[in-house]
Amino acid sequence: MTSRVALVTGGTGGIGTAICARLAGMGHRVATNYRNRTKAEEWQRAMQARGIEVTLVPGDVGDTASAEAMVRAVESEVGPVEILINNAGITRDTTFHRMTPAQWHDVINTNLNACFNVTRPVIEGMRERKWGRIVQISSINGLKGQYGQANYAAAKAGMHGFTISLARENAKLGITVNTVSPGYVATDMVMAVPEEVRAKIVADIPTGRLGKPEEIAYAVAFLVSEEAAWITGSNLDINGGHHMGW
Ligand code: NDP
Questions:
Q1: Is 87 in the pocket of ligand 1 (CB under 6 A)?
Q2: Domain residue extents for the chain
Q3: pLDDT value at residue 189
Q4: What's the pTM value of the predicted model, to 2 decimals?
Q5: I need a labelling partner for 206 at 20 to 30 A (CA). Which of 31, 64, 144, 232 fits?
C-alpha cells in the first residue's frame, strides 16, 4: 500500500477521530486541525496511547486565511496533502422563522464555505501530482431535509453540488471527489439532541440503532483507497436504512 498524506478536518471530533484512526491504521500519515491547543494535545495523547500518531496544526476551516495556513503547515510538517477529508462541521438548530443571521452564517460557513477554504489550497498540488482523494462529510439531512435544520441542510446539500462539480473538473487528473452522507451517529453532535427527540429518531431507523463513528470511517477509507479510482462524483449513504432511494 502507498502511504499518503491525509488531512482530516475536525479530526478531534467523534467521526473525525474514527477517520484519523482508520487512515493512520492503513499506514497513511495523518494530520488534523485544532482551535484549542490544550484540548487537542489531550486528544493527541489519547490517540498515542492507542498507538495512533496524528500531526496537529492550528486552523479554523471557516476562515479562508486560517485554512490556507493550516494546509501550508501540513505541507511543511508532513508533506503535500494527497487525501483531504472535509469533515469539520457544526449545527445551530432552530426553526427557520426563529433563525438568527448568525445561526445561518455560522453553519454555512463552517460546513460549506470551509470546503472552499480548505480544498482551494490543496487542489492545485493534487492536479500537478495527478493523484488525489477528496471526501466531503455531508449528511442524511442534506438529502432529505430536517425540521429545525434549514441552515445545516442547505450547507450539506451544497456540499453535493460542490462535490460533483469538482469531480468533473478533476476526473482526468487522477483525483476523485465524493461525499459520504451519514445518518445519525453516536457522537457529541447527536448526544446534544434532547433524549426524547433522539429516541424518536432511533425508532425511525430500520436497523434500530445509531451509527458508530467507525462505520463512517470504514466508508471513507474505501473511497480514498487506490482501488476506488473509478468512483467519483458519488455519494455514499450510511444511515442504517434511515433514508433509502433518491
Ligand atoms: P463533532 O462535534 O464530534 O466534531 C466536530 C469537529 O469539527 C470537532 O473536531 C470540531 O473542533 C471541528 N470544528 C468545528 N468547527 C470548526 C471550525 N470552524 N474550524 C475547524 N474545526 C472545526 O461532530 P461529528 O464528529 O459528529 O461530525 C463530523 C461531521 O459529520 C460533521 O461535518 C457533521 O456535520 C457530519 N455528520 C455528523 C452526523 C452525526 O450523527 N454525528 C450525521 C451526519 C453528518 P472543535 O473541538 O475545535 O470544536
A1: yes
A2: 5-237
A3: 86
A4: 0.98
A5: 232
